[in-house]
Amino acid sequence: MDADSDVALDILITNVVCVFRTRCHLNLRKIALEGANVIYKRDVGKVLMKLRKPRITATIWSSGKIICTGATSEEEAKFGARRLARSLQKLGFQVIFTDFKVVNVLAVCNMPFEIRLPEFTKNNRPHASYEPELHPAVCYRIKSLRATLQIFSTGSITVTEIDVPFLQMLPSYSEIYTVAARPLQTAPAPNVQMLPWTCYVVTCYIELIM
After folding, report:
1. 86 pLDDT exceeds 90?
2. What quaternary arrangement does the UniProt entry report (predicted)?
3. Half-sphere exposure of 171 (CA within 13 A, CB side)
4. What number is the average pLDDT over the span 18-29?
5. Which of 27, 17, 16 is nearest to 64 (CA)?
6. Neighbours of 50 (CB within 10 A)
7. What angle do CA 63, 58, 53 make, to 5 degrees?
8. 88 CB neighbour count, 10 Å cutoff
9. Which residues contact 192 (CB under 8 A, 6 or more apart)?
10. Rounded Cα gap, residues 123 and 151, in angstroms
11. What is the C-alpha separation between 166 and 164, in angstroms, rounded?
12. Mean pLDDT computed over every residue of the chain
């Protein structure tokens, strides 16, 4: 790989987890009997409800707390949550859509090279921890960004628990690339350049977590 070559990092959001409340008690048995696409888990006191558009799975508790997973953007998560609230209203519940919040985001990207995990861990202590007998990835924490990276030897990186302001977002991805390339002593790391469509994905991601 040439030192002067540019690499476009394809950073994609794969899951957005959000939570909201209905401000009313929910009869789980009624939802299970009259609702559509539901699974009643009586032993744990919750109901799972699935939407097709957008593809979201909601976990519903009788207290009115609802957690939604499966969205790929904040807009999609909020739209799905509102659709779910509307479905509960149609079942006769006095639902008020409140306290909506994105609580977790999962994003993935792939480096254009493999990563030597033992050497990577050695060079990045105490931020990096590696227990191959328990998990095939290195866990790398960026405390300043409240982000956790799962780094695999193939170059695949999973980013979770991200909650950073706009100005910190682009440096965070530069740090991801720099940290991953640090152990590679046989070839210098190439310059990182995000293509316009990649920047669009990152922009959506930034809007999601603000």
Report:
1. yes
2. Binds TFIIA and TFIIB.
3. 8
4. 96
5. 27
6. 14
7. 140
8. 23
9. 6, 7, 9, 173, 174, 177
10. 14
11. 7
12. 78
**Contact in structure between 97 and 88 (CB atoms under 8 Å):** no
Distance of CA 3 to the CA centre of its chain: 32
Omega before 188 cis (within 30°)? no
Asked if 195 and 10 count as a contact pair (C-beta separation under 8 A), the reply is no
d(CA 152, CA 115): 7
Tell me, what DSSP letter sits at residue 21? Answer: E
Q: 15-19, 169-173, 192-196 — which one is most confidently predicted on average?
A: 15-19
pLDDT of residue 198: 35
Residue 175: what pLDDT? 59
The pLDDT of residue 157 is: 86
How far is Cα 153 from Cα 82, in angstroms, rounded to an integer? 40
Predicted local confidence at residue 43, as pLDDT: 94
Q: Is the confidence at residue 25, as pLDDT, over 80?
A: yes
Which residues partner with 202 through β-bridges?
none
Q: Is pLDDT above 80 for 189?
A: no
State the residue for tokens 């799972």.
48
Q: Euclidean distance between the first and final Cα of the chain, in Å?
A: 36
Amino acid letter for position 102: V
